[in-house]
Amino acid sequence: MRPKFTDEITTNPLARCFPVNASTVLSALIIIAAWIPVLYAARISVSRASQAVLPRGFSFLPLQSALNDSAIVSSLLRSFGIALLASLLSIVFGGIVAVAANVHGRRILKTLTILYLFPLITPDVMIGLSLGHVAQDLGLNLDWYEIGIAHSLFGSALVFYVVSAAYDERAKEVVEAASVVGLVKLSQLKTLLYELVGRAFIAGGIVSFVVSLDDFSVTYFLTQAGQATFPVTMFGRLSKGLLPEYFAAAFLFGFVNMLLVVLVILKFGLNAFGLKEKEHEAIG
Amino acid sequence: MQLSPTLRGWLNRLGWPKVTIWLFTGILGVVWLSVLVLFPFVELIGHLISSGFTLSPYTSAFNQMLKPIGVSATYSLIAAGLSVLLAVPIAVVIAASTRRRRALFATAMLAPLFVNLLLRIYALRYFVLTGGFVESVYSSYISSYPIFASKGLLLIGLVYLYLPFAVIPLAVSLGNVDESAIDAGVVVGLQGRRLWRAVAWVPFVRGMTIGWILTFVPAFGDYLAPAVLGGRKTQMVANYLYDTAVLGGDAPAAAIGVVLLWICTGAAMIIWWRLEKRRWPRRRKHEA
Question: How far apart are the CA of B242 and the nearest CA of chain A, in angstroms?
Fold first, then answer.
């Protein structure tokens, strides 16, 4: 017999000290409220009305005209290039550092855990203004790859946390056991680490790719004329008024992001976001 | 990858795993962060000192910034508080339900976070604000009086943007509650609120504090929400900095603003550090 929802809940020991059923109702309401603007944007992006906030009819024309706009398409391509570079750099500067720190031990891991928090909680305006100031002083002409390097700052922190979360006690024990039995070749260590945290590298890379693709503030403070990314282009357009084609382009872009995140969760689980997976078998 | 015997012998003498680890953590981690975070900060301080160390332009810049700082602090304090309160039921469901259910709720909560930020914020604006969907329906069928002032909308926007930042640390903290302690509590007859107070209170408060910090700091320095939802009269720190430093070319104002924000972030980091110290208790001698 299929277990009831309440039965499944009570199998988690934590449910004994929290009002889970009331929380479920409340959180469902909050989540529905969070989805309403997204669904509204989706509806507007296939609206027949040319310039109205009340959607009318159904048409793919907004999407078609967005894809025919050369400025939108070029900014989209630039955004993807920046995000790709940022995620590759993030894997190197976040993922490899996380493995090395975890292998080494808790002291350096503790220090780096605090250090890598810095780019995540630093307001974007500070990162943007500081880096822009340095670029101006050094006479750098901020090109797309320099924006990619700036994005890798918070991307590497994200990858660091994702890989650190994946490198759990079991992984530590396996690596210790490997060192005891004399596994010293780099190739052997590489294979072992790939088996243990390889998925976390991919998950972290995708998360940093998505975050870089969506970044607005840092890019806005660094972007020069002719180098605008998709979010910066959209900001300029949407400030002037609501047209369904802008929403269509932004929705298509956001949909790709969301699909990537859902893919990460389905493939790699909630560990990718630092939420530990726990198995509680349902009764019934 | 096979190393040459000479190089391997040399690395073995040095203890190569240590060298490699220090190379990776030191050069890749610390240097990279320093180049991108510390160097710009030092450069800004240097700019402050080298352009003549007279305090008057900085005191006047600071005085001009007081109002945006006050506005930012007020909005971000309220928004962070509301976010943490709203995060509690979601975090409870994520932490205390089975694998399938937590995956569903976490995905439903996290997915909108990764939909384009601009899309969400403009959708919120057009959905609610004057001329928007809600207002259109409201004015057509109920009343012509505006239902939301822009200040209220800015607060809703900040909560909407940063709510997931409060949910994740709280869910992680609650997920770390020791299950054997719950069992022990049940054995000694504790139930409901008393069990929660005895077992989950400390991780709950820690998760709420970290969630509050993670929501407050980015909300304090947010540019987009006040620009789109705040109206012309509401100017937060980031908007002020952009207008004066980027559009107006006023370097001292930018430098002071960034330094003030660094101090704010540093304070948040110290609180985080103290909380982390509790999470990483000092090893006892016999465990070392």
Answer: 8
- Widest distance between CA atoms in chain A: 70
> Which pLDDT score is estimated for A175?
65
Q: 3-state DSSP call for residue A97?
A: helix
> What does the alpha-carbon distance between residue B165 and residue A117 come to, in Å, rounded to a whole number?
13
Lookup: tokens for A160: 């660091």
pTM value is: 0.76
To the nearest whole angstrom, how far is the Cα of A81 from the nearest Cα of chain B?
A: 17
What is the value of ipTM here, to two decimals?
0.74
CB proximity B39 to A under 8 Å = yes
**Selection from A85, A87, A80, A78 nearest residue A203 by Cα:** A87
Assess A113–B contact: CB distance below 8 Å, yes or no.
yes
In sequence order, the 6+-apart residues with CB closer than 8 A to the CB of B120 are: A37, A38, A41, A254, B112, B160, B161
Q: Do B160 and A5 touch (CB under 8 A)?
A: no
Q: Chain B: residue nearest A238 by CA? A: B122
Distance, in Å, from the CA atom of A61 to the CA atom of A66, rounded to the nearest integer, reads 8
- B232 φ, ψ to 5°? -75, -30
DSSP B30-92: IIHHIIIIIHHHHHHHHHHHHT---SHHHHHHHHHHHHHHHHHHHHHHHHHHHHHHHHHHHHH
Residue type, A197: V
The residue whose two tokens read 């039921």 is B89
Nearest to A131 by CA among B51, B215, B258, B243: B258
The tokens for B258 are 């960034």
Exposure string over A235-245, b if 16+ CB within 10 A, otherwise e:
bebbeeebbbb
Q: Per residue in A193-244, pLDDT tens?
A: 666 677 778 878 888 888 888 888 888 878 766 678 888 888 888 777 767 7
Write b or e for each residue in B92-109: b if 16 or more Cβ atoms lie within 10 A of its Cβ, otherwise e.
bbbbbbbbebbbebbbbb
Structure tokens at A19: 């009002």
CA distance A89 to A151: 9
Chain B within 8 Å of A35 (Cβ-Cβ)? yes
Contact (Cβ atoms closer than 8 angstroms) between residue A204 and residue A158: yes
A275 to B109: CB separation less than 8 angstroms, yes or no = no
Alpha carbon distance B19, B26 (integer Å):
10
Structure tokens at A163: 């890989």
CA A50 to chain centre: 33
Q: Which residues contact B242 (CB under 8 A, 6 or more apart)?
A: A125, A221, B223
Tokens of B172: 């992680």
Cβ-count burial B156-178 (b if 16+ within 10 Å, e if not): bbbbbbbbbbbbbbbbbbbbebe
DSSP secondary-structure letter at A272?
G
Judge: B117–A235 Cβ closer than 8 Å, yes or no.
no
